[in-house]
Amino acid sequence: MEDTYELELRSVPFEHADSVMLRAAQRAELTARYGTEDSEPGVKPNADSVVVFLIAYVDGVPAGCGGLRELSEEVFEVKRMYVTPAQRGTGIAVAVLKGLEEWARAQSATTLALETGTAQPDAMRFYEREGYTRIENFGDYVGEPLSVCYAKTL
After folding, report:
1. 68 with 100: CB under 8 angstroms?
2. Neighbours of 28 (CB within 10 A)
3. What is the DSSP letter of 123?
4. pLDDT tens, 58-74?
5. Rounded distance, CA 73 to CA 42, Å?
6. Whole-model pTM?
7. Helices vs strands, H then E, count in the chain
8. E strands of the chain, at which residues?
9. What is the Cα Rg of the chain in Å?
């Protein structure tokens, strides 16, 4: 018998309480992986720079998130992708990423780009499986030895 659940994607403000909670959980996990609270190069995303932020709710409980920051009229950067440990492997990350891709397409974007890190091989496998290809580090990530960048043509 398969487990079933109700998944709902909601666009919420970046500073929404569920967004703050999920991003804090992500930050704690990254701090543990990288051994520092400040492992992200460059300008941190904020309410002014994130143009859409999606939260995946499973049976009404926040289970994952992701947002987009505009780099140009045609290129958006994926920011703050995260799924709670209990929900990993259930398709939440795919749903959030597909939601972000659909939103970007509706804005006439042609490309999504992103940065992850060398201590996140699970994230690298996920993005590669979802059709993202490794690219040269861009923007603030140029020359950062722990940064790994990807892009996907929409």
Report:
1. yes
2. 11
3. H
4. 999 999 999 999 999 99
5. 20
6. 0.93
7. 3, 7
8. 7-11, 50-58, 61-70, 75-83, 111-117, 133-135, 147-153
9. 15
